[in-house]
Specification:
By secondary structure, the chain is mostly helical. Helix content is about 80%, strand content about 0%.
């Protein structure tokens, strides 16, 4: 196995561990590790637009831990679009940009189930990209990411339903 694919597999493992976290903070911290490894994977594959998306993602995840500012999200989206348009050589390379927009909005504006739905949508876009560029570790990563996100959403919803309802007295 070459070094690029090994980095992809490590990124997949980090993503799965991150998505299984119940805490939004732990989820974001795990996604930081995943994103660094994913960026290395795409750099070794020679995919500059995907690397750029990972750099933006790293900034996005880190900032979203500290703020929910719509202005911050808008700035990251504008930077993502500008860089992707400058670096893109094909339609497939636009998919990480679309994922970046969805993920930015999700990380800055949502929490709980809505956050995870946004992560799922971004992951599906990355999955399509990885299939097109034959990133085997990336395909595994995004498939597992989708499945672990669905599992995390299911367990969170199940726990919400178990919590006793508070009765309101008239």
């Amino acid at each position: 196995m070459d070094l690029a694919q090994m980095a992809g597999w490590l990124a997949a493992a980090a993503a799965i561990i991150a998505m299984l976290q119940k805490s939004d903070l732990r989820l974001k911290q795990g996604l930081t590790v995943h994103t660094v490894l994913y960026g290395v994977h795409f750099a070794l594959l020679g995919l500059p637009t995907a690397v750029e998306s990972c750099v933006i993602a790293l900034a996005r995840i880190t900032l979203s831990i500290y703020t929910r500012s719509l202005l911050c999200a808008a700035a990251l989206i504008i930077i993502s679009i500008a860089m992707a348009l400058a670096l893109s050589r094909s339609t497939v390379e636009i998919l990480p940009l679309a994922a970046s927009v969805v993920l930015t909005l999700s990380l800055f504006r949502f929490d709980g189930i809505k956050l995870r739905l946004g992560l799922l949508a971004g992951s599906v876009l990355w999955l399509i990209h990885n299939i097109c560029v034959q990133s085997w570790g990336g395909i595994c990563l995004e498939t597992c990411f989708c499945l672990s996100t669905l599992w995390g959403m299911w367990t969170a919803a199940r726990e919400q339903n178990k919590e006793p309802k508070k009765e309101v007295c008239p």
